[in-house]
From TrEMBL:
Residues 8-59 form the Partial AB-hydrolase lipase domain. GO terms for biological process: lipid metabolic process. Pfam families: Abhydro_lipase. InterPro entries: AB_hydrolase_fold (IPR029058), AB_hydrolase_lipase (IPR006693). It comes from the Eukaryota. PANTHER family: LYSOSOMAL ACID LIPASE-RELATED. This is Partial AB-hydrolase lipase domain-containing protein. It comes from Rotaria sordida.
Length: 105
């Protein structure tokens, strides 16, 4: 997501390991393009079923909620659920070979 979706905004990619070993990709847009400060209040945007964090950044800049919030001073965090393209990892299981990877609810 970082290189092809951030459209000039400062983006960071973070990895979060859940208690049951799933490695989730979380993205951060710390501030808007006109500011270099990341002192804004944090906000978490979480996508819905069968989607990913890119849902918040795919429209035009003035129509993408993540960019709109960053431009008005928020520290924007974009979550991803387990199993999507940014959270397809586990400390023990391989999603391509281990059925146990997909045994979550």
């Amino acid at each position: 997501m970082k290189d092809n979706v951030c459209k000039g905004y400062p983006c960071e990619e973070h990895k979060v390991i859940t208690n049951d070993g799933y490695i989730l990709g979380v993205f951060r847009i710390s501030h808007g393009r006109k500011s270099s400060s990341s002192l804004g209040r944090p906000v978490l945007l979480q996508h819905g079923l069968l989607d990913s964090a890119t849902t918040w950044v795919l429209n035009f800049l003035d129509q993408s909620l993540a960019f709109i919030l960053a431009d008005v001073g928020y520290d924007v965090w974009l979550g991803n659920i387990r199993g999507n393209r940014y959270s397809r990892a586990h400390v023990k299981y391989n999603p391509n070979h281990d059925e146990a990877f997909w045994d979550f609810s």
